[in-house]
Write a structure and sequence with these properties.
By secondary structure, this protein is an alpha/beta fold. Helices cover about 40% and strands about 25% of the residues. The strands form two sheets. Strands 5-6-7-3-8-9 form a six-stranded mixed beta sheet, covered by helices on one side.
Length: about 240
């Protein structure tokens, strides 16, 4: 029986919405300040096993981004329990963690350390990361001089080459030109098909999801409305998109 690497048990995330930033600040000192509650994720439970490739579907505001943030530890559930077992590499904000004054090479080490790698491990992957990103002649220039595309390619290259155990992809395959996009897709396929890497793929592109995933979870207004075969998940998601 495969090991469960991500598990949500009755997870909810509630945000407090204030009319102004001033009221948000005042709430820190006075809990009587009024606010609205937004239940971004509502009593969601699922298990993802080692080596599974799962697509997460949902319109904007369905709760997908909040689920990803909780898996990666950016925010925490208001209710319920989350278990994550394994090194997570998240292709979300590809350039987060970069220091603009550092060179590309220095940022490889900075981001590698943030992802939990030791310098020796980063050194072994350094050239592979540089080659994949296709920015060889700029690697020792400050990242502030890079175009947004170059920064995204470097961020993508670091995340996919650190040998993750859990890979989270959120529309990140739209990096760069057509040739580089295909290279990214090939790399993700390669990662998923070896070493039992677990993939959680968040996208609106159902055809791309079908390339990678055999299972789909559909979210609607913070609730999980379907969890099962990818074809059926795409059908259910497509119906929610057609609804006004």
């Amino acid at each position: 029986m495969s090991e469960v690497v991500i598990e949500f048990k009755h997870v909810s995330k509630i945000y407090k919405l204030f009319k102004t930033e001033k009221k948000r600040l005042l709430y820190t000192f006075c809990k009587k300040i009024k606010y609205q509650e937004k239940r971004a994720v509502d009593n969601v439970s699922f298990k993802i096993k080692k080596g599974e490739a799962v697509a997460l579907f949902g319109k904007n505001g369905a709760g997908k981004s909040t689920i990803l943030k909780m898996i990666t530890g950016v925010c925490f559930p208001t209710e319920g329990e989350i278990t994550v077992n394994g090194r997570v590499s998240a292709l979300l904000e590809l350039t987060s963690g970069f220091d603009p004054e550092f060179t590309g090479r220095e940022n490889i080490y900075l981001k590698g350390q943030l992802l939990g790698l030791k310098d020796k491990e980063i050194r072994e992957l350094e050239q592979e990361i540089i080659d994949f990103a296709e920015i060889e002649e700029y690697i020792d220039q400050p990242v502030r001089t890079y175009s947004s595309g170059m920064k995204a390619r470097l961020g993508f290259s670091i995340n996919v080459n650190i040998r993750p155990e859990i890979l989270i992809v959120d529309e990140a395959l739209s990096v760069g030109d057509e040739e580089f996009k295909n290279k990214c897709k090939t790399k993700v396929n390669e990662i998923v098909n070896k070493d039992e890497v677990t993939l959680l793929f968040v996208t609106h592109a159902t055809a791309t999801a079908k390339e990678f995933c055999s299972r789909g979870i559909v979210m609607q207004k913070g609730k999980k409305t379907f969890d099962g075969d990818i074809d059926e998940a795409i059908e259910k998601y497509s119906k929610t998109v057609k609804k006004k």
